[in-house]
Amino acid sequence: MADERATAAKRNGKARGGRAGLLLRLLLLAILVWFGGFIAFVLTQPGAAPPVATDAVVVLTGGPGRIARGVDVLRAGLARRLLVSGVNRSVRPDELVGAAEIPPDLFACCVDLGFKAETTRSNAEEVADWVVENGFRSVRLVTAGYHIPRAEAELRARLPADVALLSDGVGAGLPLVAMLLEYAKFEVAWLRLRVRPA
User: Fold this and answer.
1) What is the pLDDT of residue 7?
2) pTM for this one?
3) Is the domain of 35 the same as that of 133?
């Protein structure tokens, strides 16, 4: 009887140890997959898009070189109109024109400022509304290379399916911790959009 109890206890212990070992292996696999994804995220950041014409160009504020890239696209005749999304409400248009060195005649004819957006998600909403309102069929998205995956995911979820999107990444180095944070934000946005599309 005592032997039977000891054997049963051994079997139960092995079963618990087997389950714990399996859970540990699954956790390690998940961590490896996540870090593999992060390495791919860092190594495959989109750069400058080729000189392809689109109906419009949109710039998401928040880093150096973005507005200048959008203005260069306009000047080169690669887009008819520019939206700068996420402009701080305290910024006056003439301040932006001066700071970004936008020629006043170009600003007057072809540049719109969006003051509603405060997050990448609200950038996507502001841009999608503007694209639909103007009837654009193609749009160039300008933001930092590391920001493109999340911005593109949010925007694709809101744009009409027949609107072509061209991503144009501006180089911007980030410390490793900030890059990890951006990757985590991208993962959360990607999962949220799979569960509940915009």
Assistant:
1) 55
2) 0.80
3) no
